[in-house]
Design goal:
The complex is a heterodimer of chains A (162) and B (395). Chain A is mainly beta and 162 residues long. Chain A contains 2 helices and 10 strands. In chain A, 11% of the residues lie in helices and 35% in strands. With 395 residues, chain B is of the alpha/beta class. Chain B is built from 14 helices and 11 strands. Chain B starts with a strand and ends with a strand. Classes of the chains: A mainly beta (162), B alpha/beta (395). The structure holds zinc ion.
Amino acid sequence: MKDEIKKVIEETGLPIVQDEKSGAAQWVDLRELRLSYVISVENIKPFYEGLKEGKLLGTKCKKCGRLFFPPQKDCPSCFDSDIEWVELKNEGTLETMTVVFVRPPSFSMYDPYPVAIAKLDDGPKILAWYKGDPQQAKPGMRVKVQVSKRKEGYLMYEIAPV
Amino acid sequence: MSENVAVIGVGHSKFGVRMDVNIPELCWESMKPAFETANLEPKDIDFFVVGNAGVWSSEAAVPALIAEYADLAPKGSMRVEAACASGSAAIRIGYTAIKSGIADIVLVLGVEKMRESPNPNVIELIGRFGSYFWEFENFGLTFPAYYALHGTAYMMKYGATEEDYARVAVKNHYYGAKNPYAQFQNEIDVETVMKSPYIAWPFKLFDCSPITDGSACVILASEEKVKELGIDEKIWILGQGAGTGSANMSRRESYTSLASATYAAEQAYKMAGIDIDDPTKYLDGANVHDCFTAPEIIAYEDLRFCKRGEGYKLIREEQTYIGGKIPVNIDGGLKAKGHPIGATGVSQAVEAYKQLLQKAEPGRQADINKGKWLTHNVGGTGHYTYVTIYGLEKR
Ligand SMILES: [Zn+2]
C-alpha cells in the first residue's frame, strides 16, 4: 500500500480521495497485482542456443522448404512437424523504423530506443532494436543482425548498419 | 432469418476523462438514449453483447454488471474482445445473431474505462496488444511505435511529410470542436502538432489519439421487427467485412497498407453492392480508424478512396473535409473525439446513424445525397479490421 493512501485511511477511515482535476471522489483499489508470465520455449530451445553462438536461427519445413521467423515447430502448409533449424542470413535491407521516446514503465531503464524491421536476404523479416544512428537510417539500406548483451544481462538479437 | 438488419436506436456518452462515473453508470449513459431513440425497454431485448478490451479497468463481467444495473437479466449475453475493434466485433455478433434468426432485437454496447489505471500502466498494457513475446517482451514496442513503423514506411515510400500527418490532426480537432461528445473540443493548427513532443518518431503527442473513458450503444433489429414496431428512424447494415492480420509485424508483406483492412473492405463493398474501384461515388462519408494520424491516410488507400500513394494528397487538398471528395471523421475521429477502445466501433455506428439521418450537430453535418456511410475499425496493429457499410435504404 502506498504511504499516501495509508495516511488517507488513517485520517478518514476510508481509501477515498478526490481526483486532482475533477474533484470527483475515487476509491483507491488496494488489491495490487504484479504480472509476470512463464512462457514455454521448450520447442524453440535451439533458437536460444543459436543466440549464444551469435546466430539467428529460424525453422524450415523439411517437406516444403517454408522458412519461419519467428520460428514455429509446425508447418500449416504440410500439416507436418518435421522441421529443421537453419541459420538465417544475417544481412538484409532495412524496411522501416521508429524511435520509441515514451517507453513502457517496464523499459524505463533504457534510453529512447530505435526499433527497425529488416528483410533478411533469404526472405524472413525481423523486428528488433536498431543499434545505430536513426537519423542516418533509410529504408533500403544494408543492415546486419547481431547478438548483444542487454543491460538486463541477457542475450538478444539486434539490427545494425553494415 | 432476417435478410436485413437495422440500427433502430443509438446512444453515446460524453467521451473523456470520466472520473465522475463508474463502469455501469458510464454504460447507462449511452444505453438510456439508445432505448429512448428505439422506443424500447430492457425487457424487449433478446440478446446483448458488450465490446470491451478491459485489463486497465476493474470489472471483467461487464455484461452481467449491466444486466444487473439495467434489468437485462436473464437474457443471453457475452463480452467480446478484438482489441481496438472490440466494438465492431460486438456489432458483428449482433448483426449475425439477427441475420441467423436467433434473435430479433440485440443491444450492442461498447465501453472502456481506461482511466481506472494510471497512464504509464495503460501505455504498458497497450503495447502488449502486439505480439507479446516477439515484439513487446524484448523490444518494448508501444502502440504509437507499431503505427509509427507504418508512418515511417509511408513517408519514405511516397514522400509524405510529418506536416501531412499533422493536417489529419488539424481536421479531426476542427470537427471534434463541433462535437459535444468529444474529449477534445479545441481547434489546433499544424504548428501545435509539430511543436508537440515526440512519442514514437515520426509521431508526436498531437498525432496520437488520447486515453479515453466512454461508452456507445446501438440497438439492432430484424426487418420484421422494424415493420412490426413501425420504426421510421433507422439505418440498415448493408454489408460488413472482417479481416485478420498476422500477430507479428515481421510477418507482414507491407507497412504502407493493412492487409486485414483491404480484405475487409473488399468483402463489405461486395455485400453492399459498391463498386470497389470507385467507392466514394456511393458514400456520403466515412469514419476511419485514426488511432494515429498516418493510419487515417493509409485507410484512405486501403478503402480505395484514392490510388495507392495518394492518400496524403487527399488531406493536403482538404478533400476529406465536408464538401470535399469524401468527408472523413467529421465527429473528430479517434484523435479528437477520443478512443475508449471497446466503445470506438460502436461510436462509429452511432455517427453513421446521426450523419445519414441528418442529426449531426451544427457545422459537422455532411451532405447526404447517396445515403451510404462507411466505418473502418482496426484492432491491434492491424490484427483485426471490420469495415461496415450503413445505408438509408435496405438492399
Ligand atoms: Zn511445409
